[in-house]
Design brief:
- With 229 residues, this protein is an alpha/beta fold.
- Helices cover 39% and strands 20% of the residues.
- It is built from ten helices and eight strands.
- An eight-stranded parallel sheet has the order 7-6-5-4-3-2-1-8.
- Strand 3, helix 4 and strand 4 form a beta-alpha-beta unit.
- The longest helix is centred in the C-terminal third of the chain and has 19 residues.
- The protein binds pyridoxal-5'-phosphate.
Length: 229
């Protein structure tokens, strides 16, 4: 199956209110161009350096999303062009995004990443931390960010009931907070679901899915741990 066929297949099953983010991490610019030529415009990357290099090489009407963990000291490299950051998981990171967005005279849309999975290793805020962040005075002073939604990753398991339960709990939290909007907080996007679980995520209310391997095939990680140079 070609990239275009994979995209067409996914699109044919998507409800209209769901945005498809094509996760192109580890795949070369040519693969992204192939998807671009099949009308895909929204792409997600998880590493800053790779995102910047692809942004520089590829058409400027691409909407780039950062979906992976972001370190504060790297925000400055993406602040001029990133259209959505899915992975905001601390007030200090948000402050830095606000600062760098200000320097670029932009307002950067951000999603708060919630930790909903069982695994310890995944990043994200707890529901309590998220609520504390949202009522903080510091947030109320940030003019160059806008929190437009939430992101969550379910546990990597074959247990569909568990995945369902995790997505559902995030949906309920999202709906609860959605009512209280301010000038820089207005929830409309719920980013949930990847190749293995996006169908369940959509059933549970996702409005944005992040799909990589189902579009581009398996990722080829360059294994640096055995590198001799
Ligand atoms: C890699 C990645 C995806 C896509 O994963 P696939 O299983 O290839 O669809 C989605 N979200 C995040 C945060 C990722 O890092």
């Amino acid at each position: 199956m070609s990239i275009r066929e994979n995209l067409d297949h996914i699109r044919s099953t998507l409800p209209e209110h769901v945005t498809l983010v094509a996760v192109s991490k580890t795949h070369p610019a040519e693969a992204i161009l192939e998807a671009y030529n099949a009308e895909q415009r929204v792409f997600g990357e998880n590493k800053v350096q790779e995102l910047v290099s692809k942004y520089e090489q590829l058409p400027k009407d691409i909407e780039w999303h950062l979906i992976g963990h972001l370190q504060s000291n790297k925000v400055k490299f993406v602040a001029q062009f990133v259209s959505l950051i899915h992975s905001v998981d601390s007030l200090s990171l948000l402050k830095e995004i606000n600062k760098q967005a200000g320097k670029s005279k932009r307002v950067i849309n951000c999603l708060l990443q919630l930790h909903i999975a069982e695994e310890e290793t995944k990043f994200g805020l707890s529901y309590e931390e998220c609520e504390a962040l949202l009522v903080s005075e510091e947030l109320s002073l940030m003019r160059n960010i806008k929190i437009t939604g939430m992101m969550g990753m379910a546990t990597n398991t074959d247990n569909k009931d568990q995945i369902k339960k995790e997505f559902r709990s995030l949906r309920i939290f999202f709906e609860k907070l959605k009512v209280g909007s301010t000038f820089n907080f207005q929830l409309s996007t719920l980013s949930m679901g990847m190749s293995s679980d996006y169908r369940i995520a959509i059933e549970e209310g996702s409005t944005m899915i992040r799909v990589g391997s189902t579009i581009f095939g398996n990722r080829e990680y360059k294994d640096t741990s055995f590198s001799t140079h």
